[in-house]
Design a protein that fits this description.
Elements (H helix, E strand, L loop, with lengths): L11 H9 L11 H6 L10 E2 L9 H16 L5 E8 L2 E12 L4 E2 L5 E3 L4 H14 L21 E5 L5 E4 L7 H5 L14 H9 L8 H8 L17 H13 L3 H10 L23 E3 L5 E3 L23 E3 H12 L3 E2 L2 E2 L3 H7 L18 E3 L4 E3 L13 E4 L5 E5 L4 E6 L10 H10 L7
Parallel strand pairs: 1-3
Antiparallel strand pairs: 2-3, 2-17, 3-4, 5-10, 6-7, 8-9, 11-12, 13-14, 14-15, 15-16, 16-17
Length: 445
């Protein structure tokens, strides 16, 4: 596959050279204590283009990110990629390579729109914490206080001699904290095999043509997969959080997100569907044929038609977004809950979300990943050496079609990566981009 680095627009480097002539001298970096709340040097208008050198990075080294992504495209492993990095509230890298749609020969562009799947989860978590700040719930509250259908849910404990499920009582009531840290006994029906997962699939818990209330009714009739607080287990718990947002706010979930997050942050491309006037920016999603060739296909059986308004507003995986929109959301988090004067959360709430909330005795995301903990809808790096990361307290997540991001409060850095790719042949874009971004930092904080 030939190289398709975009040449029909001015390159970022050309733009940055022009802007650098007008740039003000960089302020001294904030201390770690200051940065944990909100960078003291945050400009009035965040996310303006700047040269890498203005924020202590090497532009030629940062170009290696683009070169690596172009290499994956040239090898036929990816259709197209958008990558974006910001440090000290300034965009220092924003590049697209490859194709938005191979068959149509449409080049990837920086304003492309992507299925972000589970990168919806941190946004839903922020919606929850907006309500938390308003006193609508406590993290220690039992979930059944807000969802009566979950009262006295039983826990699957095996089968009897006749193959029928054996159930046992909960060891305690599921809390909102457990719901937000995937330790509340729920499952997905997708990422593990168990009798309870089979029940999820038989009930079609996440039916795209149903409602959030339908989902709750189904879950209320299915036992928990494991005892509460016994392990981290990826689950539909963030879809349940979307339902709680509706119940506590009295608004449709999408309306709450638009009013309280998307509109204040100027996230103009983030929604549960792609409107007709933006369809030409919507990236095609790909899998791999048995021969390893890229093949256009929707994920999860093609149940979602993203070109129409969705009946099921999935807080766990339903949003589409652009690189710039997700950067604005992530930069708000790094800034301690504020962007361009629009405050979404308080600094201490952001710190709470990016702190470990796993129950005592649960040491990580599984027995082999003890270096990563889990906050409130974010994974959190606890041991950067074992995680092959760079900063303790980095928090992140990713999406099923390959999208990824991380927020580094130590280096005052955000990175966004957008692809649309399923399959085992997916190259390791996440660790590749991480190494190449950090080797471009010449002035560590």
């Amino acid at each position: 596959m030939t190289s398709t680095t975009n040449t029909h627009e001015p390159t970022l480097r050309t733009t940055l050279l022009a802007l650098s002539l007008l740039a003000l001298a960089a302020c001294s970096p904030a201390t770690n204590t200051q940065r944990a709340a909100m960078p003291a040097t945050a400009p009035i208008t965040a996310l303006q283009l700047a040269s890498a050198e203005e924020v202590g990075m090497d532009s030629s080294r940062l170009d290696r990110v683009t070169q690596a992504m172009q290499g994956f495209v040239d090898e036929g492993l990816l259709a197209g990629v958008v990558t974006m990095a910001a440090r000290d509230n300034k965009i220092v890298h924003f590049e697209s390579v490859g194709y938005r749609d191979i068959e149509a020969q449409s080049p990837m562009t920086n304003d492309a729109i992507f299925r972000i799947y589970s990168m919806t989860k941190p946004i839903t978590g922020v919606a929850m914490m907006i309500l938390y700040e308003e006193g609508k719930f406590k993290l220690s509250d039992p979930v059944e206080k807000y969802i009566p259908e979950f009262t006295d849910l039983q826990v699957y404990a095996g089968e009897d001699d006749n193959g029928k499920p054996v159930l046992e009582p909960q060891n305690h009531k599921m809390t909102v904290r457990e719901l937000m840290s995937h330790s509340g006994g729920l499952s997905y029906g997708l990422f593990s095999q168990s009798k309870v997962d089979d029940m999820y699939n038989e009930a079609n818990v996440l039916d795209a043509d149903s409602t959030l209330q339908d989902m709750i009714d189904k879950l209320g009739a299915i036992p928990l997969r494991q005892q509460l607080g016994s392990m981290w287990h990826y689950s539909v718990s963030v879809d349940v959080q979307g339902y709680i947002v509706e119940k506590l706010s009295g608004q449709k979930f999408s309306d709450f997100l638009e009013e309280r997050i998307f509109e204040p942050l100027n996230m103009t491309d983030t929604d549960f569907y792609v409107p007709e006037e933006k369809a030409n920016r919507f990236a095609q999603v790909y899998g791999y044929s048995p021969a390893g060739e890229l093949t256009a296909q929707e994920g999860f059986g093609g149940g979602n038609d993203y070109l129409r308004d969705q009946a099921f507003e999935s807080g766990g995986g339903g949003l589409v977004s652009s690189s710039m929109d997700y950067m604005r959301f992530s930069q708000m988090m790094l800034n301690g809950g504020v962007l361009d004067g629009q405050r979404i959360l308080a600094p201490l709430t952001v710190r709470l979300m990016s702190s470990n909330h796993l129950p005592t005795g649960v040491n990580g995301l599984n027995p082999y990943v003890t270096h990563t903990k889990f906050g409130l809808d974010f994974a959190v790096i606890d041991d950067p050496i074992q995680a092959e990361a760079y900063s303790q307290g980095e928090y992140y997540w990713g999406g099923a079609a390959g999208t990824w991001f991380w927020i580094d409060p130590v280096e005052n850095l955000v990175f966004i990566g957008m692809i649309q790719q399923f399959g085992a042949q997916l190259p390791d874009v996440r660790s590749t981009s991480k190494r190449l971004v950090y080797q471009a930092i010449m002035e560590p904080k």
